[in-house]
Specification:
- The complex is a heterodimer of chains A (299) and B (274).
- With 299 residues, chain A is mainly alpha-helical.
- Chain A has 14 helices and two strands.
- A two-stranded antiparallel ribbon of chain A has the order 1-2.
- Chain B is mostly helical and 274 residues long.
- Chain B is globular and about 75 Å long.
- Helices cover 78% and strands 0% of the residues of chain B.
- The chains are: A mainly alpha (299), B mainly alpha (274).
Chain lengths: 299, 274
């Protein structure tokens, strides 16, 4: 009994060290979360609650808001493309870099560097790269003899979202590359030696050894990309602010405009809560899917 | 014999990709010291003689100097608070016993799934009630909250590699918790602490949505906010805009180049150890 009491007291003291972080989370995560739910079911004047409206905001967003629908479609298209492209390009770069004999550190720095640049700066730079006349798309294209001088990918509703995607890919592929590269370098050499003895080609080695063994990392990266991309705001805001005519509107930019430009705070928060719900749902679905795949691989 | 040409092919491809990847950064830095008119007329020439004046003008006319000071202040405060809170929290998560540990681990990791972005409206409302709008400590607080979870996650990973016996032995010898934490654990986990400090510094420096929502007065602008104002205010003066971008890009870029090893290792540790 005395031992148990002492151990409990020990734990209680250890727990004290967690207090600061718990206070921060309670104040700046759980309270805003609860208050966000409250906001979303109220009409508002400025930031003040006026009347309880139940699920009206949710119904309006889901059933009757064309801009929000566009934002949802864009967000999911963009996230889907980001997951596939970031994973693919990241893995491709990692395999290439793992293959060179010298200069691995150099390549790692080059491909990873855009990650440390601010989304504002990256957005501004790519805006210039896409600019008509002196941007790279316009000038390189016309130097090669195409009529691209007046092309402005960000101003065209059919290309704007994918133009942002290219910049996004440039910025974040290095992160996936670094994670994959570390994983590849940790794979047992013998597997490959054995595969070579069996006469397996490079592609066969990749398909039979590298890809399945990297599965846990692919899972982590897909999950991180999903969580990080569904909330995308900064780069879109800087490059197009959701335009032209909502072609690049994402849920986060829609929430921002609705709350801080149109001052429909309660309604904006309802849209944000829908996004949060979808984030949690998608994270859960991915988790389940990968868990099952992982069981199949190990059995 | 067959391997040689294939190796060279992948190296060539890698070289081309590296040039493509480097180009936007090199272009930005070159345009920052290129006379404004040449950006249109001679975009491919070397910026010679360098128009250093761009930088000075961006600093003064664009008030980047003041914005830099604000960003340094916010970043330093965020890093300091995060280090204290996450070292303390990681100690707790390392020392707690199984049932409690799992529960609190989940609690601490919750913000990784619930992004601050979806709570920006209630956070704004709350900060206004607390008088933290247009306040640099307010922006720091926002960044503390956005980064504290992964910082604690990374540090917990490092602390767990320290053998429990080492800590228990010191405790039996009569060392207090804080003594053990600061005297043994922190020095042993120094690479992790450096990684966390650098990562948090870069993320805070680069934060945009927090300061966009919380800062409205120009004299409290952070670098990122000042930069967005640049492109609208000085849209016709590209030299100035590029100089502004270069000034905003360089601090995190230099920090990364100097500390790239711990930077990448810290991130990878956070991503892989789950």
């Amino acid at each position: 009994m005395a031992f148990l009491g002492r151990s409990n007291r020990e734990s209680a003291t250890d727990l004290l060290f967690l207090l600061p972080i718990l206070v921060i989370l309670a104040g700046f995560l759980f309270y805003p979360l609860v208050y966000g739910i409250v906001l979303s079911v109220h009409d508002t004047k400025g930031l003040d609650l006026t009347s309880f409206v139940g699920l009206d905001h949710y119904a309006r967003a889901i059933l009757g808001d064309a801009v929000f629908h566009r934002a949802l479609v864009n967000t999911f298209l963009f996230t889907g493309a980001a997951v596939v492209l970031l994973t693919g390009v990241g893995l491709f770069l990692a395999v290439l870099v793992a293959d060179v004999k010298r200069g691995r550190t150099f390549f790692r720095i080059v491909f990873f560097a855009p990650f440390v640049l601010a989304s504002v700066a990256v957005g501004e730079v790519w805006k210039f790269l896409y600019a008509p006349y002196f941007g790279i798309v316009a000038s390189v294209g016309s130097a090669l003899g195409f009529h691209t001088l007046t092309i402005a990918p960000l101003a065209d509703t059919s290309t704007a979202l994918w133009a942002i995607m290219v910049a996004f890919l440039w910025r974040f592929a290095g992160f996936n590359m670094v994670v994959y590269l570390a994983a590849i370098q940790g794979l047992p050499r013998e597997y490959y030696e054995y595969a070579v003895l069996e006469g397996a080609g490079r592609f066969e080695q990749f398909r039979r050894i590298t890809w399945p063994l990297l599965w846990p990392h692919t899972f982590t990266l897909v999950l991180l990309t999903t969580l990080g991309t569904l909330r995308i705001f900064d780069m879109v805001w800087v490059m197009t602010a959701g335009g032209p005519s909502h072609a690049t509107e994402t849920v986060a930019t829609d929430v921002y405009v609705t709350a801080f430009r149109f001052l429909q705070v309660g309604y904006a928060q309802a849209m944000a809560m829908i996004l949060l719900f979808l984030i949690l749902l998608l994270a859960l679905v991915e988790y389940r899917f990968f868990e099952r795949r992982a069981e199949m691989v190990s059995s | 014999m067959i391997r040689l040409p294939r190796l060279r092919w992948s190296a060539v491809l890698l070289g081309v990709l590296a040039v493509v990847w480097l180009y936007p950064v090199a272009w930005t830095l070159a345009n920052a010291i290129r006379p404004g008119a040449d950006i249109y007329r001679a975009p491919w020439d070397l910026p010679w003689p360098p128009a250093i004046g761009n930088i000075g003008e961006a600093w003064n006319r664009g008030q980047l100097g003041a914005a830099l000071a604000n960003s340094v202040y916010v970043t330093a405060m965020t890093v300091a608070v995060i280090l204290v809170v996450s070292v303390s929290g990681a100690y707790s998560l390392t020392r707690l016993r199984p049932p409690l540990r799992a529960v609190f681990f989940m609690v601490v990791l919750a913000p990784l799934i619930i992004p601050t972005d979806v709570l920006i409206v209630p956070i704004f409302s709350m900060f206004r009630a607390l008088g933290l709008i247009n306040s640099l400590p307010g922006v720091a607080l926002f960044n503390v909250m956005a980064n504290v979870s992964f910082a604690t996650l990374i540090l917990t990973g490092y602390f767990r590699t320290i053998p429990r016996d080492v800590i228990d032995a010191a405790r039996v010898d009569g060392a207090g918790r804080i003594e053990v934490l600061l005297g043994i654990m922190v020095p042993l986990a120094r690479p992790g602490i450096v990684a966390v400090a650098v990562l948090v510094a870069v993320f805070t420096w680069n934060d945009f949505s927090g300061s966009l929502v919380l800062i409205q007065k120009p004299d409290a602008f952070t670098v990122q906010l000042a930069l967005t104002r640049f492109s609208t205010l000085y849209a016709t003066d590209q030299g100035l805009t590029f100089a502004g971008m270069a000034i905003a890009i360089l601090p995190p870029l230099l920090l990364f180049l100097v500390l790239q090893r711990s930077f990448i290792r810290g991130l990878a540790a956070g991503a892989i150890r789950r």
